[in-house]
Each structure stands twice: as C-alpha cells, then as structure tokens.
C-alpha cells in the first residue's frame, strides 16, 4: 500500500475514533468569567442571565451559624424543587462571590455537599435553576478567622 | 502513581450516594510565601466530572473558594450494583487525575 493511501486511511481512522469518543471526555467548558466576577450580581448575570432570584423555602441550605475557620466552611444544599438544572453557591462578601456551580443532569438528585472558603462574615446564597425559574435561599455565616489566606 | 482521589459509591434504597475527597492545594493566588515574599500562584481544581458507566452524572465547576483538599458529595438514581463510577478532575495548570470504583 503506498504511503499517501496509508496516511489517508490512518487520518480517517483517527477522525472516526475522535468522533466516537464518549461525550464525557469532553466535559463542559469551565466558566472562567463567572468565577472572576467581583459582585454576586455580576456573577449571577454571567451564569444565569439575571441576578433576580425567587426566595424559596423548598431549598434546604445547611451552613454553620458560626465558622471558626473560614478556610473550611461546610455547605450542603438540597431541595424539593423539581427539574433542577444547576445549583450554585454564592458568598456575597467574598472577593469573587461565585464559589462553585454544579450541573445536575436528569437522574441526578438536586443535592450537593462541599466545603468552601469565606473571607469574612457573609450571607451565603444557594441559587437553584430549574426549568421553571431561578430560586434561592440565603443564610448568614459568621466567620471568626477569614479563610482567604494572605 | 498514587491517586489524589478517594471515592466511595454506595447504594441505599435505589439511590447511589457518592462521596469524594481530592488532595489538592486549591491555592487562591492571593497568598504570599512567608519565606520568599513571593505570591503563591493560583493552582486549583477547575472542574470535577463524574460518570456512571460512561454517562455523565455530575459536573462540578470550582473556583478558588473551594477549600483545600476538596470534599464533594452528591447522589443519583438509576445506578445498579457493579456499575462503574468514575471521578475525574482537571486543574488550571492542566493537571488531571481520575479514579474509578464499583457501585456497591
């Protein structure tokens, strides 16, 4: 088989493999812009197109009332809201308020638990986007020692 | 290479509970090295993706405000014992690690 034919065949095979790669290897793009936003309003507008959220008592936001160590503040969020698409954690007084955002595919429960850094006492907001709208729940966490370091 | 990920995947009444712990400095980029006086550059996990038998079940996007050695837990439905759950993280330096475990 001559070299050109071999090259074309190899190239074609490579393209075929690439096209058939499971979607999971190419995960969603990390939303850099929303994480560099310096206000909660800007971050929410960047992520969801609006900073308007409807407070909902169907969101269970669990954070400590007082965090001795702002470097490790446990946050857990779950909700009885239906058709949840994403859950985000916003720390209003952090230099960059959007702490994390989670994409919830169908079949995954709208429930997350993690640990975040807080620079100072602040409202922590759980923002949940569903197919019906954008909802939120807010709780204040008093921080004794700030967790941003420096 | 030793893994940076601890992963547990347990079925409880039809729901699979996933708990993960990742070793990572999660540097914010605003800390100063006390010895050199230089700023320690930002170095943090940007994205953590979970799959079950190859199907994406969670995408977690992290900022530098996620704590050092991040813990992350979540749950999903439709998993069966023996399914393969995989956790994979990527950081802002392009480093990556992944770990698989069976759903029990």
Features:
heterodimer; A: 150 residues; alpha+beta; Immunoglobulin-like; six-stranded mixed β-sheet; three-stranded antiparallel β-sheet; 41% strand; elongated; B: 104 residues; mainly beta; four-stranded antiparallel β-sheet
Q: Which shape of chain A, going by the Cα principal axes?
A: elongated
Overall average residue pLDDT of chain B: 96
Radius of gyration of chain B: 16 Å
For the terminal residues of chain B, how far apart are their CA atoms? 25 Å
Q: And the CATH topology of chain A?
A: Immunoglobulin-like
Helical coverage of chain A, percent range: 10-25%
Q: What structural class do the secondary elements of chain A suggest? A: alpha+beta
CATH homology superfamily of chain A: SoxY domain
Unreliably modeled segments of chain A = 21-26
| Order of helical and strand elements of chain B | EEEEEEE
Given the structure, what is the number of helices of chain B? Answer: 0
In CATH, the homologous superfamily of chain B goes by the name Immunoglobulins
Give me the Rg of chain A, rounded. 21 Å
Q: In the CATH hierarchy, what is the architecture of chain A at level 2? A: Sandwich
Oligomer: heterodimer
Question: What would you note in describing this structure?
Answer:
The complex is a heterodimer of chains A (150) and B (104). With 150 residues, chain A is α+β, with helices and mostly antiparallel strands. Chain A has a single domain (28-145), classed as SoxY domain (Immunoglobulin-like, Sandwich), CATH 2.60.40. Chain A has helices spanning 3-19, 32-36, 40-48; strands at residues 54-55, 59-62, 66-69, 73-79, 84-91, 98-103, 108-116, 122-130, 133-145. In chain A, the strands form 2 sheets. In chain A, strands 1, 3, 5, 6, 8 and 9 form a 6-stranded mixed beta sheet that branches. In chain A, strands 2-4-7 form a 3-stranded antiparallel beta sheet, with no helix packed on it. Residues 21-26 of chain A have low confidence and may be disordered. Chain B is mainly beta. Chain B has a single domain (5-102), classed as Immunoglobulin-like (Sandwich). Helices cover 0% and strands 52% of the residues of chain B. Chain B contains no helices and 7 strands. In chain B, the strands form 2 sheets. Chain B has a 4-stranded antiparallel beta sheet with strand order 4-3-6-7, with no helix packed on it. The interface between A and B is large, with 39 and 34 residues.
